[in-house]
Write a structure and sequence with these properties.
Order of helices and strands: EHEHEHHHHHHEHEH
Structural class: alpha+beta
Helix content: 40-55%
Shape: elongated
Distance between the termini: 24 Å
Number of domains: 2
Radius of gyration: 23 Å
Strand order of the largest sheet: 1-3-4-2-5
Low-confidence stretches: 148-154
Number of helices: 10
Number of strands: 5
Length: 263
């Protein structure tokens, strides 16, 4: 697991999921050699369902100290690695403002990309979309025809696009003020800015993948947990999707935080 530009969070209180002491838990996993590791855990600025909204909330809880918050579905998470900017945003932003930030991000996206509006309406959680549309109507309704034109008639296209670039300047100013008034943490601005802005270079401009932040994570499945923690399995968890390094690192962190003598 790499950590350049990332923050690695170790769940050293996972033993609290069961009626076990740290020492008892470590005894249960003593034969494990590797741990399942993937990049399937997401924080989404483009949540398409109540489930994704709930996962965002659980990630916020995880970052803010409840390291067992993510264990509500099918996995038990031992390690989560996320970009430092996302960690700082979640760690120092109240949950209600995280939700407002997502609403603000998507309002800017909806306003800046008329060609994406139907997709946003169809893909976004319905209750969230209604808030986005309300924000748009109240703050960006005059950008309804905000489009860059590609046409064979270059003269006509240039004439129309001159108006677009002028309006684009107004949009950037409008979005800056809108973000300032609705979000308490500007840390995310370079990563979610809805159109290209030289201030933020390659980080800005709409890219669908940027709105879903993928995180490396190491976990036990429900089946692993049942066999190893609740049972007496001697499974070493040597699987095609398992890695040794994160497991070794987790054990070291677990022993250090819980003051367990190394064997």
């Amino acid at each position: 697991m790499e950590n350049s530009g990332n923050i690695i969070l170790y769940n050293t209180r996972i033993y609290e999921e069961e009626d076990l002491s740290p020492g008892q838990f470590l005894q249960k996993v003593q034969r494990v050699k590797r741990i399942r590791t993937s990049r399937d855990l997401l924080f989404s600025f483009f949540p398409g369902s109540s489930r994704e909204i709930e996962r965002n909330k659980k990630l916020w809880e995880f970052v803010n100290g409840n390291t067992n918050a993510l264990n509500y579905e099918n996995h038990k998470y031992f390690i989560v690695m996320m970009p430092k900017w996302l960690y700082l945003f979640l760690r120092y932003t109240p949950l209600e403002n995280v939700i407002k930030a997502i609403e603000t991000v998507l309002t800017g996206l909806y306003a800046a990309h008329p060609e994406q509006r139907l997709i946003i309406e169809q893909k976004i959680d319905r209750s969230l979309f209604l808030k986005i549309k309300e924000n748009y109507n109240n703050h960006f309704a005059d950008f309804e025809d905000f489009s860059f034109i590609v046409a064979q008639d270059w003269k006509l296209a240039d004439e129309i696009n001159d108006r677009y670039f002028e309006k684009r300047k107004h949009f950037i100013t409008r979005f800056d003020y809108f973000f300032r008034d609705h979000c308490s943490n500007p840390l995310i601005v370079p990563f979610i800015y809805p159109i290209f802005d030289p201030r933020y270079g390659h980080k800005s401009a709409f890219k669908r993948s940027r709105y879903e932040v993928r995180m490396v994570n190491s976990f036990f499945t429900k089946s692993d947990w049942k066999r190893i923690i609740l049972g007496e399995s001697s499974d070493e968890l040597i699987r095609i999707n398992s890695e040794e390094e994160p497991w070794v690192n987790w054990v070291q962190q677990f022993q250090r935080i819980n003051r367990i003598q190394k064997a």
